[in-house]
Amino acid sequence: MTRPVVILVIAALLGLAGFVALAAIKMQQPQDDFIRSAMIGQSLPAFALPVTGEGTGEQLNAAEFRDGKPRLLNVWASWCVPCIAEAPQLAELQRQGADIVGVAINDTQGNIAQFLADYGNPYSVVASDELSQLQLKIGSSGVPETFVIDGEGVIRYQHLGDIMERDVPVLMAELRKAGWQ
Amino acid sequence: MTRISGLSVLLSLLLLPCAVTPAAAAVPPPPFAYRQIEDPAREAAAQELMETLRCLTCQSQSIADSDAPMAGSMRHEVRTRIAAGEDPEAIRNWLIRRYGDYVSYSPPVGAATWPLYAGPLVLLLLAGMLLRHRLGKRS
After folding, report:
1. 3-state DSSP call for residue A103?
2. What is the pLDDT of residue B17?
3. pLDDT per residue over A103-116, tens digit each?
4. B42 Cβ under 8 Å from any chain A Cβ
5. Whether A132 and B70 lie within 8 Å, measured CB to CB
6. What is the per-residue pLDDT for B49?
7. How many CB atoms lie within 10 A of CB B138?
8. Cα angle vertex B80, ends A141, A38, to 5°?
9. Smallest Cα–Cα separation from A55: which of A118, A148, A123?
10. Is residue A145 within 8 angstroms of chain B, CB to CB?
11. Test the A interface: residue of B27, B75, B125, B131 with most A CBs within 10 Å
12. What's the alpha-carbon Rg for chain A, to the nearest Å?
């Protein structure tokens, strides 16, 4: 074999070894199934959703997030089991002063009211997103998810999955980073 | 006694998911999750697009193949937009701006995806060079 061919073969073998090594490393790591939103750093897109429970008849829209006050936007559903698990953590966030806006995905008024009666209502307002319209607009890929929205209505942070105890200080820190005092 | 209590624990574990599902079943899916657009040409365009969009909660399926609630919501979004006359590629780009390239089964050429497209070309080139070398030696 001539020199160029030897180099080619060695390059090919190195490539193969690299691929196997990469695959081996990837297989060791726990799989991250979450799809992050590509909307972090961007303004909340325009939306209007009916408020449910207290304030029924009113609408929740993006403008309400631009009043200078950073908020948490919690995307949940009464049919979502992990949402039950994060209820105490949402209550703790509210106790620490966070303003939490709840958006119930693909849900009914009755089920929403029942869930809040059973597991507590940490929300300043709850809106109903029956067709997942806001969910798709902000790049949320499931329930529950919690977004930090700053006082200008810009999406600053996304927490995927249910909020565990260790996530409470993280979310409070992200709220402070977004200007909350 | 222990056997009975063990059995009842097992039974209650088996029945546990049933306690959760009725609430989910009580919520109807979005109208266009399972209903086709009346115009067959537009439905065909929607179907073609939905088969190339990845279900976000069940990543090995397209939204056309999945029964997950999220996939139903995405089908509703795609069908309503196509029915309103929107271009399928514009809808794909709208979703990519929200979820990244991951949501599409036909990823655009970009910083992270170019090896997908360049790889086969490089391999073809290498094979060609090897073949030419071999044949050249024989003659």
Report:
1. strand
2. 42
3. 999 999 999 999 99
4. no
5. yes
6. 96
7. 5
8. 30
9. A123
10. no
11. B27
12. 22
Structure tokens given for A34: 């979450």
Q: Please tell me whether residue A161 adopts helix, strand or coil conformation.
A: coil
Nearest CB partner across the interface for A142, out of B57, B102, B133: B57
Q: What is the ipTM of this complex?
A: 0.81
A51 close to A58: Cβ distance less than 8 angstroms:
yes
Residue type, B4: I
Alpha-carbon gap, residue B76 to B31, rounded angstroms: 7
Joined together, the tokens standing for residue A31 give: 């799989």
- Residue that the structure tokens 């937009």 belong to: B81
The pLDDT tens digits for A2-54 are: 787 788 888 889 999 999 998 888 888 776 678 899 999 999 999 999 999 88
Which helix (DSSP H) or strand (DSSP E) does residue A147 occupy? strand A145-149
* Cα dihedral sign, B107-B108-B112-B118: positive
